[in-house]
Write a structure and sequence with these properties.
alpha+beta; 8 strands
Length: 184
């Protein structure tokens, strides 16, 4: 029988960022970047209107992180100690050695290499520590920055999921399904 896989609330470090397990201690920074309207361009839910809504959402991902099958981290810039985004690993399928990632980065840090560094740190953890075989990511078909960022670290497009995302306004959007295998 194989060993059970547990996604633990470990601290993961890169050169400019550290991934800290989500907690209410990061609420102020989380709320600050959550107030940027463009942050929600590729999310199904509407922007938060106040810190209470930010806290409610944050508490949900903290609660989800209590499971050994998923974990969410804050992306914290080392130099400023500011939380600039979040990263999640979820939907663990032990039999298939597969997991899904999700992420959000403050618009103030787009295009500056923070996503690349974060995803590389997460991939190292998934492949080297958890010994999983496959990582899946889904993103809006129109989110070319996310698609290009995933391609830069070796993700391949596997297909388009028609009308996968439903925005809060009722409109449907396609998703691109991408994956990276431990050997590519």
């Amino acid at each position: 029988m194989s060993k059970k896989i547990s996604i633990d609330p470990v601290v993961l470090k890169g050169d400019r960022i550290v991934l800290q397990p989500v907690s209410l201690a990061g609420l102020d920074d989380f709320h600050e970047y959550s107030m940027h309207k463009e942050f929600y361009n590729y999310f199904e839910f509407p922007e938060f209107k106040n810190i209470s809504e930010s806290e409610e959402y944050l508490q949900k991902i903290i609660n989800r992180s209590e499971s050994s099958k998923q974990q969410f981290w804050f992306i914290q810039e080392i130099q400023s100690k500011k939380v600039i985004g979040s990263f999640g690993v979820h939907s663990l399928d032990e039999y298939r050695g597969s997991v899904e990632i999700g992420y959000g980065l403050s618009p103030l840090y787009w295009g500056k290499g923070y996503f690349q560094e974060s995803v590389n740190v997460i991939l190292e953890y998934i492949f080297n520590d958890l010994h999983l075989h496959r990582v899946v990511a889904r993103t809006f078909e129109s989110n070319q920055a996310s698609i290009k960022g995933l391609e830069k670290v070796g993700f391949k497009t596997e297909g388009v999921m028609v009308d996968y995302y439903k925005k809060h306004n009722g409109r449907w959007f396609n998703a691109v399904l991408m994956a990276k295998l431990s050997k590519n």
